[in-house]
Automatic annotation (TrEMBL):
Alphabetized SUPFAM superfamilies for the sequence: DHS-like NAD/FAD-binding domain, Thiamin diphosphate-binding fold (THDP-binding)
Cofactor dependency: thiamine diphosphate
Keywords: Lyase, Magnesium, Metal-binding, Thiamine pyrophosphate
Residues in Thiamine pyrophosphate enzyme TPP-binding domain copies: 409-557
Span of domain Thiamine pyrophosphate enzyme N-terminal TPP-binding: 14-127
E.C. number(s) listed in UniProt: 4.1.2.63
Naturally occurring in which organism (per UniProt): Solanum tuberosum (Potato)
Catalytically driven reaction(s): a 2-hydroxy-3-methyl fatty acyl-CoA = a 2-methyl-branched fatty aldehyde + formyl-CoA; an (R)-2-hydroxy-long-chain-fatty acyl-CoA = a long-chain fatty aldehyde + formyl-CoA
Name the record gives this protein: 2-hydroxyacyl-CoA lyase
Source taxonomy: Eukaryota, Viridiplantae, Streptophyta, Embryophyta, Tracheophyta
Length: 574
């Protein structure tokens, strides 16, 4: 071996060094779009055992990284190029931060000595990510890479989880150090990791006693849990508390399945009564934001006492509940359960509050089932949603992960589709983000390879990221995308005649798409399976075949364009 060969083998460049640090930190998946200056980083990462899922668009890759963080409890990693790549990645970073999911955006950036001179894709990316990043780090020299990598990963999951950013200048990625020094720097940085960041707050026992006393004395108690409880893996703790006390529960949309939707104490079908009449509400891992009507009248009683469990002290201070418990959802619920177990109480099925909610739930379910029982053709939203629900339930366990986005499609799906297992529903979330569908599908398939992934999408929501069906085929992911095709946003042209005026009145309506679009052919262009369906039998056949095959498929469901309505804030009428 020549001296030059020996030297080449014994040195590592910045790209390899970043990959080594990610691998040491336990990163096993990465999503992104490669190009100058990060292609080599992606290749080196793959060589070190990190699976890289390459997308067409950083926006979809970012949504995938954010959902991966939620599903696994570990930071989802998004890799982008500099400048516009970083900007496109902000969609995923901001989505992660708003939903409080751990994620790290890693972007290449301009050569440091060329900054300010109009370098290729130049942007002050540290400044650009500020509104959406909990913590940002820039590796200004190759020796700084380990501490930067470990710090962004630790910050992403500390306290209230969220998005973090790592900036990798081109010149740093091209610097080299010896292999020996590289390993020493990684060892040193790992030993200095700030473990305090990951420590969870400890709730005082006196506060747990107060929470138990409030629940014990309540006449109409309610337990509400959100996706923060799902992230915390609080399902067993919640099951124990609910079943020991007999207190009815209400999940937020993405928390459906923590306890089965068909549990006898589920109050979802009597939501308005539950939140309108409860006198004490234990809120676990959910924020009193628009999704829960800010915890204010007229939706809630003016006298309701809130017990708010949240990992974020600032969230509790903002909402000013009767009692705030800062801590991890699972640990706090376990502590409340233990306190009640020592002096038990249980409402029982004949308790007036439990009876009232049960009666209302049954009434509302019967009304909805009467609507669902009709086979309406051309399809409305209810008929195909019922067929999809029944097909999913027939699969049993492990239950598929359902990805739901759209206006009417998501609204109807939230009421009709049944979740029986934790973290099996992904939707537009806290921000009401459209365009998350295909990214979430890919994240779910990668995070939970044992589960089928079923997306139920409006045609508008699908259109944001439809090209990623090629990604499904390329990686042969078990994803079935069902598109409710009603010819546009909310259902094509809904304008009144007096609204159709002006010099461009012949243009399609702002809500219109091409009628009868052949979305099923898109996936066939890449070797996937497409179905066009318009009747119950056609849909049942397509679902049976595609669910059994567990291969990438798109089912194009023709919906009556006059079915459905404009959707914005969530409307709950039960």
């Amino acid at each position: 071996m020549s001296d030059s060969d020996h030297q080449t083998l014994s040195t590592v460049d910045g790209n390899t060094f970043v990959a080594m640090c990610l691998a040491r930190a336990g990163v096993d998946r990465m999503f992104g779009v490669v190009g100058i200056p990060v292609t080599s980083l992606a290749n080196r990462s793959v060589g070190l055992g990190i699976r890289f899922i390459a997308f067409h668009n950083e926006q979809s890759a970012g949504y995938a990284a954010s959902a991966y963080g939620y599903l696994t409890g570990r930071p989802g990693i998004l890799l982008t190029v500099s400048g516009p790549g970083c900007v496109h990645g902000l969609a995923g970073l901001s989505n992660a931060t708003v939903n409080t999911w751990p994620m790290v955006l890693i972007s290449g950036s301009s050569d440091q000595k060329e900054m300010g001179r109009g370098d290729f894709q130049e942007l002050d990316q540290i400044e650009a990510v500020k509104p959406f990043s909990k913590y940002s780090a820039k590796a200004t020299d190759i020796t700084k890479i380990p501490s930067c990598v470990f710090s962004v990963l630790d910050w992403a999951i500390s306290g209230k989880p969220g998005g973090c950013y790592l900036d990798l200048p081109t010149d740093v990625l091209h610097q080299t150090i010896s292999d020996t020094e590289a390993h020493k720097l990684i060892d040193d940085a790992e030993s200095c990791r700030n473990k305090e960041l990951i420590a969870k707050p400890i709730v005082q026992h006196s506060e747990i006693e107060k929470a138990a006393a409030l629940l014990r004395k309540a006449e109409r108690p309610l337990i509400v849990f959100g996706k923060g409880a799902a992230f915390s893996r609080a399902e067993n703790a919640l099951k124990n508390l609910v079943e020991r006390t007999g207190i009815p529960f209400l999940p937020t949309p993405m928390a459906k399945g923590l306890l089965p939707d068909n549990h006898e104490l589920a109050a979802t079908a009597a939501r308005s009564l539950a939140i309108g009449k409860c006198d004490v509400a234990l809120i676990v891992g959910a924020r009193l934001n628009w999704l829960l009507h800010f915890g204010e009248p007229p939706k809630w009683s003016k006298d309701v006492k809130f017990i708010l469990v949240d990992v974020d002290k600032e969230e509790i201070e903002l909402r000013k509940p009767c009692l705030g418990l800062v801590g991890d959802a699972t640990k706090v619920v376990e502590m409340i359960h233990k306190e009640i177990k020592d002096d038990p109480f249980c409402l029982g099925k004949s308790h007036p509050w439990v009876e009232a909610l049960s009666k209302k739930s049954k009434e509302n379910v019967l009304k909805m089932e009467a609507q669902l029982a009709k086979d309406v053709v051309p399809f409305n939203f209810m008929t195909p949603m019922r067929i999809i629900r029944d097909a999913i339930l027939q699969l049993g366990s492990p239950a598929p992960i359902v990805v739901s986005e759209g206006a009417n499609t998501m609204d109807v799906g939230r009421s009709v589709l049944v979740q029986t297992e934790p973290r099996t529903r992904l939707d537009a979330g806290t921000w009401g983000t459209m365009g998350v569908g295909l990214g979430y599908c890919i994240a779910a398939a990668v995070a939970s390879p044992e589960r089928l992934v079923v997306a139920v999408e409006g045609d508008s929501g699908f259109g944001f990221s439809a090209m990623e069906v090629e990604t499904l085929v390329r990686y042969q992911l078990p994803v079935v995308v069902i598109v409710f095709n009603n010819g546009g946003v909310y259902g094509g042209d809904r304008r009144n005649p007096e609204e159709i005026t002006g010099p461009y009145k012949e243009d399609p309506a702002p809500t219109s798409f091409v009628p009868g679009a052949s979305y099923h052919l898109l996936i066939e262009a890449f070797g996937g399976k497409g179905y066009l369906v318009g009747t119950p039998d056609e849909l049942k056949s397509a679902l049976t075949e595609s669910f059994s095959a567990r291969k990438p498929a798109v089912i194009n469901v023709t919906i009556d364009p006059y079915a459905g309505a404009e959707s914005g804030r969530m409307q709950h009428k039960n």
